[in-house]
From TrEMBL, chain A:
Positions of the ABC transporter domain: 3-245
CDD domains named among the record's database cross-references: ABC_cobalt_CbiO_domain1
Primary role: ATP-binding (A) component of a common energy-coupling factor (ECF) ABC-transporter complex.
Keywords, alphabetical: ATP-binding, Cell membrane, Membrane, Nucleotide-binding, Translocase, Transport
InterPro entries, sorted: AAA+_ATPase, ABC_transporter-like_ATP-bd, ABC_transporter-like_CS, ABC_transpr_CbiO/EcfA_su, ECF_ABC_transporter_ATP-bd, EcfA2, P-loop_NTPase
Record's subcellular location: Cell membrane
Superkingdom classification of source: Bacteria
SMART domains assigned to the protein according to its UniProt record, in alphabetical order: AAA (SM00382)
Record-stated family: Belongs to the ABC transporter superfamily. Energy-coupling factor EcfA family.
Topology with respect to the bilayer: Peripheral membrane protein
EC id: 7.-.-.-
UniProt xrefs under Gene3D superfamilies: P-loop containing nucleotide triphosphate hydrolases (3.40.50.300)
Protein name: Energy-coupling factor transporter ATP-binding protein EcfA2
Source organism: Ligilactobacillus ruminis
Automatic annotation (TrEMBL), chain B:
SUPFAM superfamilies: P-loop containing nucleoside triphosphate hydrolases
Gene3D superfamilies in alphabetical order: P-loop containing nucleotide triphosphate hydrolases (3.40.50.300)
Record key words, sorted: ATP-binding, Cell membrane, Membrane, Nucleotide-binding, Translocase, Transport
Main location, first listed in the record: membrane
Protein's recorded name: ABC transport ATP-binding protein
Source organism of the structure: Ligilactobacillus ruminis
Subcellular location: Cell membrane
GO cellular component, one term: ATP-binding cassette (ABC) transporter complex
Pfam families linked: ABC_tran
Length: 288, 279
């Protein structure tokens, strides 16, 4: 069991009159090799929960367990350092954290920091650059000469260079154009297929439908749903009640239903809906 | 109708060594009161074009006329009086300690008398529906609310043209709907000329006119229905299609005969119901 969160609560400025409970009694499990989407509005506690996963925050109450390592309110900060090798964290706009002279050095920074030799670290950097589809010729360029999408790839390669088992992604496609977004999502999908556990914080319900196999919904610091995307999006009324969107396909299928078309269950992805419709259109003409 | 923006043979590049111009001989006229969506992938030149129109960047060659003023170093301040810009990241646009102070900033810079400032702050906060937040700290607002405040600040200096540079791209879906609704109202009711630079195809489909930029050139310029019906072109340059068109492409791949003309959601629902339920 790589991640288990048990009755976790977290308060900012605990014990002061300004105390604010950001997470309340959250319990959940994330299995090895899963692709989990974390959904919720600004202020729902998503980021607070994610920051527990790599030891940036410790619970005020309850505990969490990551790859067998327990983190409780009593855990010492120095015990949390190793966690950052196991859990890679891609913040929003990660390219803001690039700083080295060359792309290769930037990617090699973390492995070097964690004790690899220069040669080893460089070899890792070259491998990671390939993994995120950066062309060879950019390796010796300054990261600041690259396009926005490429800079983001460099930042992500730098995180992958720590060879984490779990990758936490906070709105990783914000600000990219449609093609850049698609390429980025395919990259994560590939990492997932290679066995990495992916945790994606997102507002993009299409991505939840297209990529995730597990969905968590937070609201006002509480976990209000822990389910599959299929089950989540089969309840449009519940989602609307909580001001959450549906994937485009599901929304469109609802309109078709309102005009008299029937579905056994609401389709989630464009491919799925196109297949159902194509079968019906062909089936219809064959009968004529 | 008269053109409020006239661009002739506009060429721009960031450095002389670049082989490809960031803007390459762009010719455009935009009518007063029009809502124009400027689409294209990152690096296509959209934001550079907006910055040239606002005089933030000086073109290499060609000319720009805004509201009858030929844009030069002498006229740039007058031109900027007529244009308001709303940027992508709401957090980078705040200077005031509270919402009111922030909205007043642009007016303070222009030496507008205090009583007039107070009147306008009240008006514009009402216009963007943020009156209740006048005394709030901008940092504590949601993304959509922050963009509303940024728009209020722009409205306060009474421009004729508002340029939205990917202003909805960092907002959650509710914030996005909110700001697009406000853009529509400013255009419909207040008759502002609106230029929206966007990747969001749903936002672009609301415009009167869509201009497609690719590698610094205008490659298409038409009403949204026409632009979105030419599906391959948009896909080829890395842009999304409106959902009904994207679904049509997917059906085409599965060997279904689909109508060639552009279908909006309603049209697509109709066509699908007729085709799939005909027996």
């Amino acid at each position: 069991m790589p991640i288990r969160v048990e009755k976790l609560s977290y308060s900012y400025q605990a014990g002061t009159p300004m105390e604010h409970k950001a997470l309340e009694d959250v319990s959940l499990e994330i299995t090895d090799g899963s692709y989990t989407a974390v959904i919720g509005h600004t202020g729902s506690g998503k980021s607070t929960l994610m920051q527990h996963l790599n030891g940036l925050l410790k619970p005020t109450e309850g505990f969490l367990e990551i790859n067998g390592r327990q983190i409780t309110p009593e855990t010492q900060n120095k015990e949390l350092g190793d966690l950052r090798k196991e859990v890679g964290f891609v913040f929003q706009f990660p390219e803001a954290q690039l700083f080295e002279e060359t792309v290769k050095k930037d990617i090699a920074f973390a492995p070097k920091n964690f004790g690899k030799s220069d040669e080893e670290a460089e070899a890792i950097a070259v491998r990671m650059a390939k993994m995120v589809d950066l062309p060879d010729e950019v390796l010796d360029k300054s990261p600041f000469e690259l396009s926005g999408g490429q800079m983001r790839r460099v930042a992500i390669a730098g995180i992958l260079a720590m060879e984490p088992k779990i990758l936490v992604l906070d709105e990783p496609t914000a600000g990219l154009d449609p093609m850049g977004r698609l390429e980025m999502m395919r990259l994560f999908s590939r990492l997932h297929k290679n066995g990495m556990t992916i945790i994606l914080v997102t507002h993009q319900m299409n991505d939840v439908a297209d990529y995730a196999d597990h969905a968590l919904v937070l609201e006002h610091g509480r976990l209000i749903a822990d389910t599959t995307p299929k089950a989540l999006f089969s309840k449009p009324e519940w989602l609307r009640e909580h001001h959450l969107d549906l994937p485009q396909t599901t929304k469109f299928a609802e309109k078709l239903m309102a005009s008299g078309m029937k579905f056994d269950s609401l389709p989630l992805t464009k491919k799925e809906l196109a297949q159902i419709l194509a079968d019906r259109i062909k089936g219809g003409s064959a009968d004529e | 109708m008269s053109s409020i923006i006239k661009i002739k043979n506009l060429t721009f590049s960031y450095s002389a060594e670049e082989e490809r111009k960031t803007l390459d001989n762009v010719n455009l006229e935009i009518e007063a009161g029009q809502w124009v969506a400027l689409i294209g992938h990152n690096g296509s030149g959209k934001s550079t074009l907006a910055r040239c129109i606002d005089g933030l960047l000086m073109p290499e060659s060609g000319s720009i006329e805004v509201d009858g003023l030929h844009l030069t170093e002498e006229t740039v301040w007058d031109v900027r009086e007529r244009i308001g810009m709303v940027f992508q990241n709401p957090d980078n646009q705040f200077v005031g300690a509270d919402v009111e102070g922030d909205v007043a900033f642009g007016m303070e810079n222009r030496g507008i008398p205090r009583s007039e400032m107070q009147k306008r702050v009240k008006e514009v906060l009402e216009a963007v529906d943020m009156t209740a937040f006048a005394k709030h700290e901008p940092v504590r607002l949601s993304g959509g609310q922050k963009q509303r405040v940024a728009i209020a600040g722009v409205l306060a200096v009474r421009p004729k043209i508002i340029i939205f540079d990917e202003s909805t791209s960092m907002l959650d879906p509710e914030g996005k709907r909110d700001i697009v609704g406000l853009m529509r109202r400013l255009n419909d009711e207040e008759n502002f000329t609106i230029i929206s630079i966007t990747h969001d195809i749903d936002e672009a489909s609301l415009a009167d006119r869509v201009i497609v930029l690719n590698d610094g050139r205008v490659i298409d310029d038409d009403v949204p229905e026409k632009i979105f019906a030419s599906g391959d072109l948009l896909t080829k340059i890395g842009l999304d299609l409106p959902y009904p068109e994207a679904l049509k492409e997917e059906l085409k791949e599965k060997g279904i005969d689909v109508p060639n003309e552009y279908l909006d959601e309603e049209g697509m629902v109709d066509w699908l119901c007729r085709s799939a339920l005909k027996n």
